[in-house]
């Protein structure tokens, strides 16, 4: 099977200037992710899980190591070194990211958020509008809320919107940072159904979870992160 993402000896350190202290968030992390695979990552809060995902998405710049991504457009790209313009283009067309938090422009409605994600991929307005409504229907976002600003939403509504915005693009690589953190059981099942659909369509995924029950039947491999390092686990 062809590898889509290969991480070798990734390291990320944060400096706390006020305490004159350094924190090693990720140390010598190596991982390969094959096309169509779903790898799950577990570990305590502060163990470095989100740091790895943010280095892949290039929210953080790592201090060392390589993050080799096989892009459909650019061929092999080291995400640790690629120009910002390349990273922005990959985020628009190939790499999705779902976090627990929704950061959006204050005057953008829920419907506009999802629709914009499709328009920036080059979808025509009619198709984008139809796919937007289908995704918002799937996550049962109240039609009365769709033209409202997400700042007024509950935590669960914001998270459902965040997931909808990332998944509607059907990215080649999807990074999931606690995608079910504040969801009720019904919403979790909808996320799981969509993940399974994306897997059938060929999306490759790397996800962080505390909900081990949710991971059952989804992940082809699991890693446990402790003290900034990966340890492969059974099951």
Q: In brief, what are we looking at here?
A:
With 235 residues, the protein is α/β, with parallel strands linked by helices. The chain has seven helices and ten strands. The mean pLDDT is 89.
Main features:
235 residues; alpha/beta; Rossmann fold; 6-stranded mixed β-sheet; 30% strand; globular
Fold and architecture overview:
The longest helix is centred in the last third of the chain and has 16 residues, at 185-200. This protein has helices at residues 49-57, 84-93, 110-119, 125-138, 155-167, 185-200, 212-215; strands at 3-16, 21-34, 38-42, 64-71, 75-78, 95-98, 173-177, 204-208, 221-226, 229-233. The model has no long low-confidence stretch (mean pLDDT 89). The chain is built from 7 helices and 10 strands. The protein is α/β, with parallel strands linked by helices and 235 residues long. It has a single domain (3-16, 23-233), classed as Rossmann fold (3-Layer(aba) Sandwich). The strands form 2 sheets. A 6-stranded mixed sheet has the order 6-7-8-3-9-10, sandwiched between helices. A 4-stranded antiparallel sheet has the order 2-1-4-5, covered by helices on one side. It comes from Paenibacillus azoreducens. Residues 5-234 form the ABC transporter domain. InterPro entries: AAA+_ATPase, ABC_transporter-like_ATP-bd, ABC_transpr_LolD-like, P-loop_NTPase. Keywords: ATP-binding, Nucleotide-binding. This is ABC transporter.
């Amino acid at each position: 099977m062809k590898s889509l993402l290969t991480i070798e000896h990734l390291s990320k350190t944060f400096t706390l200037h006020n305490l004159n202290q350094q924190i090693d968030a990720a140390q010598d992390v190596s991982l390969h992710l094959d096309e169509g695979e779903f790898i799950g990552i577990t570990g305590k809060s502060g163990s470095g899980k989100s740091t790895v995902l943010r280095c892949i998405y290039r929210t953080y710049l790592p201090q060392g190591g390589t993050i080799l991504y096989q892009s459909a457009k650019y061929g092999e790209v080291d995400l640790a070194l690629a120009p910002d313009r390349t990273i922005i283009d990959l985020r628009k067309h190939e790499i999705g990211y779902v976090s627990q938090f929704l950061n959006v422009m204050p005057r953008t409605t829920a419907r506009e958020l999802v629709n914009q994600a499709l328009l920036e991929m080059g979808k025509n307005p009619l198709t984008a509008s139809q796919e937007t409504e289908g995704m918002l229907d799937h996550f049962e976002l109240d039609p009365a809320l769709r033209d409202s600003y997400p700042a007024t939403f509950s935590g669960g509504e914001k998270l459902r919107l965040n997931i909808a915005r990332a998944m509607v693009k059907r990215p080649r690589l999807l990074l999931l940072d606690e995608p079910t953190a504040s969801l009720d059981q019904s919403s979790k099942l909808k996320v799981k159904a969509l993940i399974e659909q994306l897997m059938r369509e060929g999306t490759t995924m790397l996800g962080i979870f505390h909900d081990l029950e949710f991971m059952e039947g989804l992940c082809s491999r699991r890693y446990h992160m402790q003290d900034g390092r990966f340890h492969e686990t059974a099951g």
